[in-house]
Amino acid sequence: MRQQMSTRHLAVELTAITDAAALASYCWLGMGRKKSGDKAAVDAMRRGFMEMDVDGIVVIGEGEKDEAPMLYNGERVGTGKGPRVDVAVDPVEGTRLLALGRPNAIAVVALAPRGTMFDPGPAFYMQKLVVPEQARGLVDINAPVGRTLAIVAEALGKKVRDLVVFVLEKDRHSRLIEDIRSAGARIQLHTDGDVAGAIMAVMPGTGVDLMLGTGGTPEAVLAAVAVRILGGEMQGRLDPQSPEEAQAVSTAGLCTARVLRTEDLVGSDDILFAATGITDGTFLSGVTRTEEGIRTCSLVMSGTSRTVRRIQSVYTPLRMSLLEAQACA
After folding, report:
1. Which among 197, 265, 260, 202 has a CA at the least distance from the CA of 230?
2. What is the DSSP string of 303-316?
3. Closest Cα to residue 277, out of 293, 290, 291, 295?
4. pLDDT confidence band for 67 (50 / 70 / 90)
5. Rounded to an integer, what distance in angstroms lies between the CA atom of residue 274 and that of residue 310?
6. Which listed residue, 90, 91, 136, 204, has the most CB atoms within 10 A of its CB?
7. How many CB atoms lie within 10 A of CB 7?
8. Can you tell me the distance from the alpha carbon of 240 to that of 312, in angstroms, rounded to the nearest whole number?
9. Which residues are within 8 A (CB) of 72 and not within 5 positions of it... i.e. 6 or more apart?
10. How many CA atoms lie within 13 A of 22 on its CB side?
């Protein structure tokens, strides 16, 4: 019988890993050196996994697309004891946000039972639609944008002009932005951070009602864990952004016409998601220095219990000095 993964103890350990990554990258905040900040977070996250009682394989790593420091796809993590899990990581989601000191940089990890996370292979980009629970089952990523906005507005009891849509500020979205504005909705443009954007679309009180546009495929799988726990819906379709990527996707036998739903991206409810703020953001405060020490704000979610917890931790100056020595070496 498969060992259940979503225990409170494991959730706390997962939060400690995202905390460590956030604290390590914090020393590079605003320094303009995104790879240095990312490497510090990767190293801290890897050290944290060494003490975690799971038999983990990294399915969603990071770094391949932009040649950043990596926790490699296929890398084994954990002590080898405990549940067999797929692991998705983004030690710094928003490396440019970190480098420039902008909001919404976060450290993220998700776990799911072995074999239940979608492996994107060479597919780096995916077109996405993310909606909250009220609109789940009502939308279609293939529908015109105006139709989607009308459906979501009705589900939320709003007018279309009151909707706020999270969109990444990329050249590829010029037509999408035009269509959203033509339909009468508002847009919140972000340079980076579509894991955060997906969470904002399904979490109440963020000021965002849905997310549209093409972002990272690995980020889609990572975000799908949180979306599933929060009861929302994600739909995606692979959207290669270069002839080389298109050829690699075709060679891997992946279909760009197939609509991938939340359940395709993560096929279990026995899932865990944790995120820690690095810079201040919409749903998480960033790392903050106080008289007591260094404060972190984290979010941890469990799929089996459908719980969402906010955890504030304070690290002593001695603990922080050790982390800084490791991160800034």
Report:
1. 202
2. TTTTEEEEEEEEE-
3. 295
4. very low
5. 10
6. 91
7. 16
8. 39
9. 58, 61, 63
10. 34
